[in-house]
Amino acid sequence: MKEPDPLPLITPLNEGAVAVTFGHSINKEIYRKVTWLRDFLLENPFPGQDSVVPAYATLTVFFDPQHAVLRQSRGQEWPTGIVVNFLRQALKTMPADEKTPEITPLIDIPVCYNGPDLSEVAAQLQITTQEVVRLHTGNTYSVFMIGFLPGFPYMGPLPEALQLPRRATPRLRVAAGSVAIAGAQTGIYPLQSPGGWHIIGHTDITLFNPTARPPSLLQPGMQVRFIAT
Predict the structure, then answer these.
(1) Are 132 and 143 in contact (CB under 8 A)?
(2) 223-228 vs 106-111, strand pairing mode
(3) Is 93 helix (H, G, I), strand (E, B) or coil?
(4) Which residue range(s) make up the domain with 159?
């Protein structure tokens, strides 16, 4: 009989934040666990809960240690310990991997594959530019987290055949809408900025609008497909 997976590592970060670590790789199965706990906490918040922030394999839980319910319990246990115990109990109700929900919804992103690094990427990988496009469009990517820039989606996992280290020399200016790859990740620059990823294409879709709610088009937990135009 297969032994059950050990519970994730729960680590206090400070008096108002706890990190729950499910693994150490870019992996959809690990990320499903992250999103399961995120959704559980959003539906069943504990007293003083503030925000929950997902990453590739970690969920960071922020809370107010001065919340009345948590403060009243200090005679027996510090607020951080109370939150850790709550998370431990929540994790015991997590379904088996095969029963965790699929990551949704699915969004198609049109891309013109004319990036300045496309030929160099193909040469380094010893494949054609057409094969780079085929591989990049032939996969469905999970949005693991938003960061670096407002609305910048870290997505993956990238097919192994497309994986390269970051550029040795980052660019000072990367155009908004640039579609890029690095390591096991792919992403889209929502704004002009410096950047060290390999740019293989461009999309006209607006990823960040400060007046929209939410301002970021893509959110952790969504799935993305790239469509060559």
Answers:
(1) no
(2) parallel
(3) coil
(4) 106-228
Q: Which of 24, 20, 1, 17 is nearest to 9 (CA)?
A: 20
Q: Are residues 135 and 40 in the same domain?
A: no
- 222/122 same-domain check: yes
Regarding whether 153 and 79 lie in a shared domain, the answer is no
Tokens 């009989």: give the residue: 1
Note the pLDDT tens digit of each residue in 7-41: 689 999 998 999 999 988 888 888 889 999 999 99
CB 77 within 8 A of CB 46: no
Q: State the DSSP H helix or E strand holding residue 19, giving kind and residue range, or none if neither.
A: strand 17-21
In the block, residue with structure tokens 């594959």: 113
The pTM of the full predicted model, rounded to 2 decimals, is 0.78
**How much is the CA Rg of the chain, to the nearest whole Å?**
20
Residue 145: strand pairing partners: 154
The encoded tokens of residue 139 equal 């996969």
Do 128 and 22 share a domain, yes or no? Answer: no
